Amino acid sequence: MNKLRVIILKPSKYALNGYVDRYRWGFMPNSTVPHLRSMTPDSFRGAPVEVLTVDEYVHTDLDYLALLRRELGHRILLAIVGVQSHQLHRALDLAAYAHQNGCLTVIGGPHPMTCDTSMLQGRGVSFALAEAELVWLDILEDALAGQLQPVYGQKQRWQRELDSPVISPPNKKDMQRYVIPMLGLYPARGCPFTCNYCSVIKIAGRRVRSQSVETTIKSLRAAKAAGIKMIMFTSDNFNKYAQAEELLNAMIDEKLDLKFFVQCDTQIARQEKLVELSSRAGCFEIFVGVESFNRSTLLAAKKGQNHPELYKDIVDLCQTYGISSHFSNIIGFPKDTASSIKCHIKTLCELSPLQASFYILCPIPGTEQYSEFLCAGLIAERNLDRFDGTVLTWNHPDLSRQELTSLLFRCYTTFYSLKHTISSLRRQSDADGRWFRSLATLTLSSFSRYASFRRAHPMSGGVKRVYLDSSSDYIPLRKTMFDFEFAPLPQILQLPEADQALNRRAKIN
């Protein structure tokens, strides 16, 4: 009986210097890797299944490449997961390497779910266009038989109701790869909004679907027992999750004492009860995509749910309940100028959320904005590695790539001033977890200034960059297997009709 070895790998990306982006300690765990590992049975169709996991962002050796070789009596499946457009080249290089050594490979994630990959199909690598719950067992069965289909999930992208597994936490060795033992979970998927620069509604849909609260609680119990100290709820809009209060109450009743992070839309300003409950359950930070203070800019981006006059209410509400407010900002919208960006950072500093992050507007392949920019001939960058929100990839009417890069780092150094850091530490309440929030504030402030001084994006992945391999090691193999050095800019993959209908029925609560 053949043994099936499954290697679940989250790829990194190629940095500006060509090296694979790797860090000694990571800031944010990948949620898909443990999710897919937890979905994989110990045996399948009578064959034993061995599962190995790799997150390239925090793997500081290349030992896992030795596993991508055919062995007598083994079927080897490489599942490259969570692939975004700026990680596509790395994913294709690993797929080519695995194929060359007799392994089967499937690529899934945001890029194949939102972009047309037909030109890459039939070349020894398969693509998953749907959520893992819909296709994973079919992939395992075909892998065991020794032949994958070119594409999985063409007819339906999302489950109508989530049937997710209890998550098995990572082992101690993998936990040591992060600044603090942490685990990513998504109790719900989907976002009801239609921001034109965001691909979430193509990846997870507009209807917010949730797994059972009991499943999430079981995952949290397992995480605590394994030594996890922090949870990142990576659902895009925790405050749009219908069972949020039920989950938070269950966490309080369980006395889990796990610090956690959530993402919310700006309407959290009107949900004081949820913020208060989150604080009692152990929330230390709420991440909010404010993006801009200019209402006309927000409307042009189809982000009309954001009302800048409410931003201060979010800061004050979080402050009241001892939670750090983290505002995400985008610079380089079409109407932005150097002067307006400087005005933005001045306003942000006056508002003074405890934390902030900044990105350059990027037309992400698969989004409505990308399609518009592509049709208008505005996209100037041809290398998908650069589509990560840290550099300008299109022809801005007023700002050059160099100007926007300088403004990006100016935003970080201006916001994370010594004055802001001291003020943030003084504003920490006496609520439980003050030491944790104070340490997080001091660490992020110091690291953001250091990274900006080094001209590196502070949110790029972790601490202490490690150099091992680079794109030059794989480009000859990429050319041989795919017949290009750089993948052409993709066209958008249209949603199946069944999923379009699901999106049309979504409601904004």
Kindly describe this structure.
The longest helix has 20 residues, at 434-453. The protein is 36% helix and 17% strand. The chain folds into 2 domains: 3-159 and 476-482, 3-Layer(aba) Sandwich (Rossmann fold), CATH 3.40.50; 172-456, Aldolase class I (TIM Barrel, Alpha-Beta Barrel), CATH 3.20.20. The protein has a 7-stranded mixed sheet, sandwiched between helices. Helix 7 (213-225) packs parallel to helix 8 (244-254), helix 8 packs parallel to helix 9 (272-281) and helix 12 (338-351) runs parallel beside helix 14. It has 18 helices and 17 strands. Helix 3 (110-114) links the parallel strand 6 and strand 7 (126-128).
N- to C-terminal distance: 52 Å
How many strands, what sense, and barrel or not for the largest sheet? 7 strands, mixed
The tally of beta strands, per DSSP, is 17
Q: Quick one: overall form?
A: globular
User: Which architecture of the largest domain does the CATH hierarchy give at level 2?
Assistant: Alpha-Beta Barrel
Number of helices: 18
Total individual domains: 2
Looking at CATH, which topology of the largest domain would you report? TIM Barrel
SSE-based structural type: alpha/beta
Radius of gyration: 22 Å
Strand order of the largest sheet: 3-4-1-5-6-7-8
Oligomer: single chain
Give the CATH superfamily of the largest domain.
Aldolase class I
- The average pLDDT value, as a whole number, equals 93
Strand content: 15-25%
The share of residues in helices is 25-40%
Low-confidence residue ranges = none
Task: Kindly provide the name of the CATH class of the largest domain.
Answer: Alpha Beta
